[in-house]
Predict the 3D structure of the following.
Amino acid sequence: MRVSPGVLEVIVVIPIQADQEARDYYVRNILSVWSNATGDEVEEGERWYRTAHETAALLADGDIRTGAGLLAALSPQTAWWLNVELACEAFEAGTASRHTGDACGKANKILAGVDPEEVLPMTRKTGHFYRCILNPDDPMSVCVDRHAYDIAIGVPLGDWNRGLSAHGRYALLAHCYWEAAQRVGQNPSTVQAVCWVAWRNTLAGVGTRGSRV
């Protein structure tokens, strides 16, 4: 979908206090991507956090909390393959590197034995990402990253700042995923992961779906 800069300026950062009409719109967009996901995309999305859970255990010698914490701390603006690589390196070396000072600082605290929930921002993306990896069956946590945001508004925004550091905006979209998940009888993390896979494939030009409404 091509959107003019003027339109983007209006929609790029959604209101923190959205009315019911806006919330329904976000939920419909999420469900549209969910319902149009292929069988392979559903399968990949359904196993995504379970695979991440297993990866967390493997990289930290069975200590899933530490492994999940490292993955979450080192996840911002990082592709998954590199995220795993950085977390493995940090655990093996006993110190994090090759990321921002803030991310490495959080990872080093986790390596020092601090509970990840005391280190990570638990009301924002990295905190929810940690919870989803720690427990793929968590009925409430949902990782709202830039793709999850774009899915909800129905527009790929590229490098635009989405304002997800605001707790209210994050909570709004997390609740929309939770509501969408309730409607299809799934955990919100599963809905988010399946939609993420389907949306990623569409952006890469390998999907077969039409444009979102």
Remarks:
- Confidence is low (pLDDT under 50) at residues 1-10, 207-213.
- Residues 39-59 form the longest helix (21 residues).
- Residues 5-203 form one domain.
